[in-house]
Each structure stands twice: as structure tokens, then as C-alpha cells.
Write a structure and sequence with these properties.
About 5% of the residues lie in helices and about 45% in strands. It is mainly beta. A hairpin with a 4-residue loop joins strand 16 and strand 17.
Length: about 450
């Protein structure tokens, strides 16, 4: 541990004596490039992390002051950088980059300098990527982006504070079209949401957008005329409302306040007309502790907690979160600043966790000891039948989620024997040809996209 104070804090969190700075997590791969410039604000060479899976291979994507780095991490012990895309602007002025993929493209933004929206074609992987768009007409500066894959809309948060919140159509993925610059085009926006309409970060699903806007949470529907569905500007342990993530069943929202000493909030959002505060969870007794980003997969929320590292909580009972894993990625001692673990990405089909640390770089982590039975979460989107299967496997959506997914069939050893795209909407049936010339036995069917993964064990007869 960095010092006895932090060690004591971890004792409080974990409720047990810990000999190391980790619990149920181990590093499989770490990349750090000492030649990268460090930002003038927080001495960070690294920022956001994202992941991608294609044709049975897994990729880690991390932003730096120089640009965007692409790693093949299918086998973490032999991970390699497969490509690099330089940012429109680079160097010590760059603090933030952000990413989201859609329809085989990666969208890349920055919030500093002479930046632009860059779009990369991922179809050339595993060999390389190709920049197919680099313009500043639609988006020049952006603090965060989120793409609603179900509706093909990109939400642009901030942007040097001159742009508060923008909504773009990706009907043509290579030509984003502005639908709303909300503070200008929606009469009530600037006076209702945040400070002048500024949104720091957002989560969107099926046109319902959770806007984390500094002074609180605002939920807006963009399916037709933009409509405010809910707002929450008073809640326990309130700080600067920074970011959040919605559970797959749409009932639980994990929300972070980027304020020293404030914890993560767990909310019941199953009834937006009456959002319920359930609990706070995080580092106890440390007024310097500060979280940054959190993502929910299944019954677990993964949290980048700046200089305290990365944490995993079991929220199967949302009102009583339980710490199940942590790893202290950071070596920083300047606890009042903004340094350490920046982001997490838990959606790789393997279950491995990607983490970015502002000073220590990219981590690929084995979290299988913390995240138990992840493939069998109660919040499933798909069912498969028949099971056992002989030659035709049916996949049906059981929840109201739309979009394109990838289906892989793997041997228990991990070898991919089938890889296919499917389209889902509510109760839509997809049928795939299950390989018949393979031995009888158990196989794993994984259905995933950039923000979701579900695995199902199936018997081949």
C-alpha cells in the first residue's frame, strides 16, 4: 500500500486484513510509455479506456496526450499494440479524450486544443484501423460522448463549455447530423438543466437520456419532442454530479459525484416519477477519496476511484452493495488532485476488465475471483433454444433492447467455432446454423455489443 493511512482505509472497506493492495483482482497486462508527454494540469499521459470485440478477438483502446492506441488483448500475456491514431492536437494541453463505438466504427473526441471528431473504421482489425473522418464542423471540442446504439444517436457533452449538450443522428455513421444543440434549440433547456444547460456526462438507452449535469441528474426523452421526465437535484452526500450508468434491467442507476470525500450513489429509477435513493458506497473515512467513472455490467458496478484505484461492487441487492474486488493501480501521493484510475471497461466477452490509470497506463485485469457467475446474471436480454441443440439454434430477445449484436460459439477451451452478427428488437427471433461437424459436449454461446455481454452454456448432441 502507498502508506498506512490508505492501508487503514482499505481495512475499513474490505472488513478484513489485507496483505496487499488488491482483493480478488490480478493484472494480466500493463502498458506504459515513458516517452508520452504529461498534461500540464494533472501530469496525466493517459485518459479514457474503451474496448471492442470482433471475430473472436478482443481489443483495448486507450487515449493519451498523443492520440489513441489500439491493443490486441485476446491473449493478455502476449498483448500487442496493433495501431495508433494521432489526435488532431497533441501534447501537454490534452487532458481528456473519450470514445464510443457504433456499427463497426469508433468515434473519438477531445476537450482541449485544436481538436476534432475522428471516426475510425475498425473492420481492418486485427491488422490496423483506418481514419475515415477527421473534421471539426460537427464537433470540435467534447468532454464526453455517448452513443445510443438502439436509435443511432450520438450525445455530445460539453466541449470547452461553449457547447452545452448536442444530439446528433448517425443515420449515416460517417456524416453526423445535428438534431439539437439543446441550449439553443430547446426553449426550456438552458434554464432547467445544470448551469446554462451544461451536461458533463450522459447515459442513453432507447432515447431516454440520463444527464449528469453538475448540480444534479436530469432524465430526458428524445424520441420525439424532447421531454423532461425527471430531475434529482437534492440527495444525500451531494457533490458535483459527474457521471452514471444504468443497469441492464433499467431499474438501478449508479451515479458518481466528482467531489473529494463523496461516495457513489445507488438509485432506484424503475419509476422515474419517483426516483428513490438507496445507498452510498465507497471509501469510508477519507475526505480525499474521489471517484471518476463507473459502469454496470450484470449485478456488478465497476468504479475507477482515482488514486485509490479500481473497485468492484456486487449490487444484486442494490440497497446493500458489497465490495467484492479492488486493485490499487495508482502510485500517486497528491490525493487532493485528480490523478489515478480514470476509466473502466467491463464488456469484453472474456470477462477481463480494462482499466486506464492517468499516470500508470493501460491495465488488463482478471476479475474472475471477484465477479462470480457473470454469464448467469438475472438481467438477461436473450434466451436460446433448443438446449441441447443439434443443427439450428434460435436466439430471441426477451427485453426491449434494439441494435446489432455479435454471437460467438466457443469450446470450453475458448476456441471460437462460430462468429455471426444478429439484429435484435423486442421478441425478434434470430436463427443461426450451429456447427454439426463438431463433437458432442458443452459449448458457450456469447451475445454481445460494445456495452453488453451475455453468455449461455449449451449442450451439443
Amino acid at each position: 500500500m502507498k502508506n498506512s493511512v490508505i492501508f487503514f482505509l482499505f481495512l475499513l472497506i474490505a472488513g478484513q486484513s489485507l496483505a496487499q493492495d488488491s482483493l480478488n483482482m490480478r493484472v494480466l497486462f500493463n502498458w506504459k510509455d515513458p516517452s508520452l508527454a504529461k498534461s500540464s494540469l494533472y501530469a496525466n499521459a493517459y485518459n479514457e479506456v474503451w474496448g471492442y470485440a470482433k471475430d473472436g478477438r478482443e481489443y483495448a483502446i486507450i487515449g493519451t496526450t498523443r492520440g489513441t492506441h489500439f491493443f490486441d488483448v485476446t491473449n493478455p500475456s502476449a498483448a500487442i499494440q496493433v495501431d495508433f491514431v494521432q489526435g488532431r492536437d497533441t501534447g501537454r494541453a490534452i487532458v481528456h479524450r473519450d470514445y464510443h463505438d457504433y456499427n463497426g466504427y469508433l468515434y473519438m473526441v477531445s476537450d482541449e486544443g485544436n481538436a476534432s471528431l475522428q471516426i475510425v473504421d475498425l473492420s481492418y482489425l486485427p491488422d490496423s484501423v483506418s481514419v475515415v473522418y477527421d473534421q471539426d464542423t460537427a464537433i470540435k471540442l467534447s468532454h464526453n460522448i455517448f452513443i445510443d446504439s438502439a436509435t443511432g444517436k450520438l450525445y455530445n457533452c460539453g466541449g470547452g463549455n461553449s457547447k452545452k449538450f448536442g444530439v446528433f443522428s448517425l443515420a449515416n455513421p460517417l456524416s453526423p447530423q445535428l438534431l439539437y444543440q439543446c441550449e439553443n434549440d430547446i426553449s426550456w433547456w438552458a434554464s432547467t438543466v445544470g448551469t446554462g444547460g451544461y451536461v458533463h456526462d450522459a447515459f442513453a438507452r432507447n432515447d431516454t437520456v440520463f444527464c449528469n449535469a453538475g448540480d444534479g441528474l436530469y432524465v430526458v426523452n428524445f424520441s420525439a419532442t424532447p421531454t423532461l421526465l425527471a430531475s434529482l437535484t437534492s440527495y444525500p452526500d451531494i457533490g458535483y454530479n459527474h457521471s452514471g450508468w444504468l443497469s441492464e434491467d433499467g431499474k438501478t442507476y449508479a451515479m458518481g459525484d466528482e467531489t473529494h470525500g463523496k461516495k457513489m450513489k445507488i438509485l432506484d429509477v424503475s419509476n422515474l416519477s419517483s426516483i428513490q435513493f438507496l445507498d452510498t458506497v465507497g471509501v469510508t473515512g477519507d475526505n480525499n477519496a474521489i471517484l471518476h467513472n463507473q459502469i454496470i455490467r450484470g449485478n456488478y458496478v465497476y468504479v475507477a476511484y482515482y488514486y485509490n484505484g479500481v473497485f468492484i461492487y456486487d449490487i444484486s441487492s442494490p440497497s446493500t452493495p458489497v465490495l467484492v474486488g479492488f486493485y490499487d493501480t495508482s502510485k500517486e501521493f497528491n490525493f487532493r488532485s485528480f490523478k489515478g484510475a480514470w476509466g473502466v471497461y467491463p464488456f469484453l466477452p472474456s470477462g477481463n476488465l480494462l482499466v486506464s490509470d492517468m499516470q500508470e497506463g493501460l491495465f488488463v485485469m482478471d476479475v474472475s475471483q471477484a465477479v462470480v457467475n457473470l454469464p448467469e446474471q438475472k438481467s438477461q436480454r436473450f434466451q436460446v433454444f433448443p438446449n441441447p441443440v443439434h443443427d439450428r439454434l434460435n436466439i430471441v430477445g426477451i427485453q426491449e433492447f434494439w441494435g446489432e449484436y455479435t454471437v460467438t460459439v466457443q469450446e470450453i477451451s475458448g476456441k471460437i467455432i462460430l462468429n455471426q452478427r444478429i439484429e435484435n428488437n423486442f421478441m425478434k427471433l434470430n436463427t443461426i446454423s450451429f456447427p454439426t461437424k463438431i463433437p458432442s459436449g458443452m459449448y458457450v454461446v456469447t451475445i454481445f455489443n460494445s456495452t453488453f455481454a451475455q453468455s449461455i452454456k449449451i449442450i451439443k448432441n
